[in-house]
Design goal:
The protein has one domain. Helix 4 crosses helix 6. The longest helix has 33 residues. By secondary structure, it is mainly α. The protein has 6 helices and no strands. Helix content is 76%, strand content 0%.
Length: 162
């Protein structure tokens, strides 16, 4: 139950901070999310769903990190946090590709049967291949988000051992 509490707290904090960051950047007139050439930018028209996705994966990953790596110190802790954030980026890229495909289906291309699952699989592959690039060109949102994720993971030692 305590692991669920950690996961929910990290999820809530990261979603709230991500949404706040999104609105701050929009307020000052910055383009928040990048995209590929001639790509439908569904993450700009549905930002909360993508922020939610990142927060959800961060919450689960934070719980795993807390369980196995919270006792590390110094450079080992730093490397484990960075490695966890890289893993989160990969998982978010894959699941973001799937979510992008679902948004594409809402625009009218909705395959049936086996083609539906093929589209979902191709969305996951596209997310894996292109997701990192989209995250990379989403400056400054990506930099602030990485810092937020780093701080949230690094501060997990404040929780009591479960």
């Amino acid at each position: 139950m305590a692991y669920l509490k950690i996961s929910l707290q990290i999820f809530t904090k990261s979603f709230a901070l991500g949404a706040l960051l999104y609105h701050l950047l929009r307020f000052i007139g910055k383009r928040v999310f990048g995209g590929g050439y001639r790509m439908f930018i569904y993450h700009s028209s549905h930002p909360y769903q993508y922020i939610y996705l990142v927060a959800l994966i961060l919450g689960v990953a934070a719980t795993v990190w807390f369980r196995f790596f919270t006792k590390l110190e110094g450079i080992k802790k730093f490397i484990s946090v960075i490695a966890t954030l890289v893993m989160i980026i990969l998982l978010v890229s894959i699941s973001g590709g799937i979510l992008w495909t679902i948004h594409y289906m809402y625009e009218g291309y909705f395959p049936e049967g086996l083609l539906f699952w093929k589209s979902i699989l191709l969305g996951a592959i596209d997310g894996f291949v292109l997701g990192g690039l989209i995250i990379l060109v989403s400056v400054p949102f990506n930099i602030f988000s990485f810092v937020i994720g780093f701080k949230l993971l690094s501060s997990l030692e404040q929780y009591d051992e479960v």
